[in-house]
Design a protein that fits this description.
19% strand; two-stranded antiparallel ribbon; single chain; alpha/beta; 36% helix; Rossmann fold
Length: 248
Amino acid sequence: MSVAEFGGSGQGILLLHGLMSRASTWWTVAQWLKRYGRVVAPDARGHGRNPVRGPFRTEDFVADAVEVIEQYDLAPAVVIGHSMGGLHAWALAATRPDLVRAVVAEDVVPDNRGRTVEEWKWYFDAWPPAFESLAHVRTVVDVPRVEELFEEREDGWHLVAHLPDLYEIASEWGERDYWHYVDEIRCPMLVVEAGLGGLRAGQMAEVARRTGATHLVVPESGHVVHDQAPEVYRGAVEAFLSGSIDPV
């Protein structure tokens, strides 16, 4: 497993990235989080430098997170997840409450049943076999920190993650819901919702209602709140952490 250690000491903080992303994209967030503890972020299977290419059920990702927490002696950890990583944080907190002190879940919902990969796969199918340059990538792929998601190879620039793996991971989300995990969460939680994220409306509010979590909506932000509204995100997370973790 490929794991980034961002520094800090004391309380363990585990960062879980979203689909298509990687651990290094948390760097800016990790710089201020280090004030609150030791910050660690793995590349999820199928992403970054993680050599594991499957299986890709949610429970497999959770098992990986358990391994990181135990290997790096982070328990009980604050688990901060974006999108896919938020889902994994929920499942981890529900199934291994002994390992999780608190959760921050960013722009993720527990029920996407009926939504299929085919709804957005066309976008990736339209990509060229290889991009000619990083500038070429930026004309097509409009996501934060895009330069960290691509790498140069002999024939041009390619996504670090493998698209077939991403399709397989996401296909599960359209087939099952995860409310049973949400309902088992007992630790403090902050849920951060992007006003422009495009997720199914009302679900993050329902997550907060069921769990007693703090719910923040950031109206002006797209899906990646920690990059697109960084000061709002930081303020919310620091306010949340200050109630349960002392700065070091």
